[in-house]
Amino acid sequence: MQNCQGNGRPDKEYENWRWKPSQCDLPRFDANKFLELMRGKTLAFVGDSVARNQMESLMCLLWQAKVPVNRGNKQMQRWYFKSTSVMIVRIWSSWLVHQTSEKLDFAQEGIAKLHLDVPHEKFMEFTPGFDVIVISSGHWFAKQSVYVLNNEIVGGQLWWPDSSRPMKVNNIEAFGISVETSLTALATHPNFTGLTIVRSFSPDHYEGGVWNTGGSCTGKVKPLAAGELVENGFTDIMHKKQVIGFERASKKITNKSKLRLMDITEIFSYRHDGHPGPYRSPDPNKITQRGPDGRPPPQDCLHWCMPGPVDTWNELVLEIIRREFEGKQSASS
What we know:
The chain is α/β, with parallel strands linked by helices. It has 7 helices and 11 strands. β3 and β4 form a beta hairpin. The longest helix has 23 residues, at 310-332. The chain is globular, with a radius of gyration of 20 Å. The protein starts with 30 loop residues before the first helix and ends with a helix.
């Protein structure tokens, strides 16, 4: 879905732009170095479809050096690199917290109830087996759901049937609570000693609407230049809430695990050229041009082209892992 060249995107320049930090060097991704640093270890991506996008980018980068064996099952995707005994895992968790659909108080059956103070058991049960967790979320908080704290309904998104009741928690606050809940659960898990990397909120670049109301990023072939960045209030507040949740969880660590923030939000706000846009599927009959009425074709301005900007996220992951593991490996070997 994010193979933009394979799906017919005509321009290629977006593949070549690369973020350069001002205070340090970010080395290019070295697949063999990654596999050596992760020897005998498991890395898990936990999150939504943008987490899947990052996992697939990592797999494409590693595949240049070694071909893995598919060991996936119904619960998770798993790829195993035999030469270094490295496992790459992906677990779907759209909200990172416990979710139910049964009727609860005045919320009908069927609609998603998010228990914001309970971490998602789907990834928590496997946590002790992970050495590195790359965790992310956020975009599902725009979808319809009910917010529950302490088994009491406190808010909702695109749902609040009783205007006479005050809503205590909106979707942005719910996101912040969910981040603190999930990260605190990892930071206090008695059997987790790994490294948690929190990938910050991924900016989208829909203009003139959102994904289902004619939003578009067609024709963006270069990153924004310094000074051209348009403030996105939703992205900014989501990022802020996520950072606050991260900081609060950092103060509660009781186990031997480490918590690191990988902040990509502002940097990748410049990359409006890095999304599939209308080249979002291999379908040869997909519409890629505006209609006679000027309406843009359906498009994806949320996920990232591969190859493309998302590969830099994995360069950052490798650098964080290198800083955490490199000295310790040589000291213990």
